[in-house]
Amino acid sequence: MSEEPLQNRLRDWGLKATYLYMIVLFGGIPVGIISGWVELRVYGLNEIGDFLAGAFGPLAFLWLVLGFLQQGRELQNSVDALRHQTKELKLSVAQQKAMVSIAKEQHDLETDVAKRARRLEENSKLSRFVISPQGGSGGPRGKVNARFKIRNVGCSATRVVLNHDVEGGGEITFFDFAANAAKDFSIEATTWPRNWESGCLTIQSESVQGSKSRQSFNLTDENVSEIK
């Protein structure tokens, strides 16, 4: 039941009860005079006040009760409205949290995509190399030459320096190493690569775009693995 119909009902009930009471009250006075219940004489102000208080007291009490019921209903409607607003607020907070979570996920995704794009762009400016073993052969003074092929799979390089730590170490330098180009190099040692106690190779390069890079590899005559 809504608030407005209840107010109308309470008002209608009150008016009907008031009309009925007034009819009974004023209609009963002549009956009281005729029957002798009411004596016609001059009344003092106190007696008139007592009469009016007694006559209209029930009406005042009736309207007081009706007002109390109406206020109670209005209070209940206010409580229901507050509960509804609280529920909507909770739903709004949940939606805001979901939107914040989605926005954060989207931001993280965009950040990750941007990092990958930046990494790809940076890598496109670098010279990158792969090394493959090419076997070995006997060399002078009883030594062996371990042969390798190095290929540039990145950007063209202006200078490439290979440093290895095999038997005291050594350095090999290449200039103007074009992209997709391959070159051979060899390392002289007293034992075959498979018997090397240490076979680490470091490549330092500078691309034509000025970006510098560094790579490290483990060398044997059967496999060359890059050290990440």
Short key terms for the protein model shown above:
228 residues, alpha+beta, 5-stranded antiparallel sheet, 3-stranded antiparallel sheet, 2 helices, 28% strand
Structure description:
The protein is α+β, with helices and mostly antiparallel strands and 228 residues long. It is 50% helix and 28% strand. The protein has helices at residues 3-35, 45-124; strands at 129-138, 144-152, 157-164, 170-177, 182-189, 200-207, 212-219, 224-227. Helix 1 packs antiparallel against helix 2. The longest helix has 80 residues, at 45-124. It is rod-shaped, with a radius of gyration of 52 Å.
What can be said about this structure in brief?
This protein is α+β, with helices and mostly antiparallel strands and 228 residues long. It contains 2 helices and 8 strands.
* pLDDT < 50 runs, ≥5 residues: none
**Strand tally:** 8
Measured on Cα atoms, how large is the radius of gyration?
A: 52 Å
Mean pLDDT value? 81
Helix vs. strand class: alpha+beta
Walk across the major sheet and give the strand order: 4-3-6-7-8
Biggest beta sheet summary:
5 strands, antiparallel
Order of secondary-structure elements: HHEEEEEEEE
Topology overview:
Elements: H1 3-35, H2 45-124, E1 129-138, E2 144-152, E3 157-164, E4 170-177, E5 182-189, E6 200-207, E7 212-219, E8 224-227
Antiparallel strand pairs: 1-2, 2-5, 3-4, 3-6, 6-7, 7-8
